[in-house]
Write a structure and sequence with these properties.
Shape: elongated
Mean pLDDT: 92
Number of domains: 2
Number of strands: 0
Helix content: 55-70%
Oligomer: single chain
Strand content: under 5%
Low-confidence stretches: none
Distance between the termini: 57 Å
């Protein structure tokens, strides 16, 4: 198989993982192919069905992609729900803030790493607001953030407590207030 055929095959998110691995092994020095492998893994992973596509091959590819010099590949690994926690820990120290921000959003990121990311730059801290594993202490602080989108994600975060939601229900921004009130009504059912 040549490079162009490999790139074309990787566009199919139903391509068997064994074939994706074979392509990665044959073209691992080609950053465009590596990026397409990462994208293929990203496209086949559902945010609604986190167990979909979970396999030893998926994990092996994610570990190898996390070591890529291609930022897009590390980005795809950082957000993938199948990425092992030890890889997320390593990526939490990545030089690229977007990679660290995606680690902050990943529900597999351990709480101790999420706590460390809280002292990072704003884009990274913002990622914590929607992560259901973000420690409550941090969600409380984020509920007072100046950024409306951060407060909105805290209001939508399934781990936000009733007290946090009550505080956000009184928010001056109508979208934040509405989201918090909807959650409060839903939780009372």
């Amino acid at each position: 198989m040549d490079r162009n055929e490999a790139l074309e095959l990787l566009e199919d998110k139903k391509l068997p993982l064994e074939k994706v691995k074979e392509i990665f092994e044959n073209f691992g020095e080609d950053m465009e192919v590596v990026g397409m492998v990462a994208m293929n893994l990203s496209l086949r992973t559902s945010v609604y069905d986190r167990e979909k596509e979970k396999s030893p091959i998926m994990t092996e590819l994610l570990v190898k992609l996390s070591q890529s010099e291609d930022m897009g590949s590390r980005w795809a690994v950082a957000k993938n729900p199948h990425t092992p926690s030890e890889v997320l820990e390593k990526l939490s120290r990545d030089e690229v803030n977007l990679v660290r921000a995606l680690v902050a959003t990943n529900p597999n990121t351990p709480k101790n790493i999420l706590s460390q990311l809280f002292s990072d730059e704003k884009i990274v801290r913002d990622g914590l607001s929607g992560n259901p594993n973000t420690p409550l202490k941090l969600l409380n602080i984020l509920a007072d953030d100046r950024d409306k989108m951060v407060r909105l994600r805290v209001a939508e975060n399934p781990s936000s407590t009733e007290n946090i939601l009550k505080k956000l229900a009184a928010d001056s921004d109508i979208d934040v207030s509405k989201a918090a009130n909807m959650r409060l009504k839903k939780d009372k059912r």
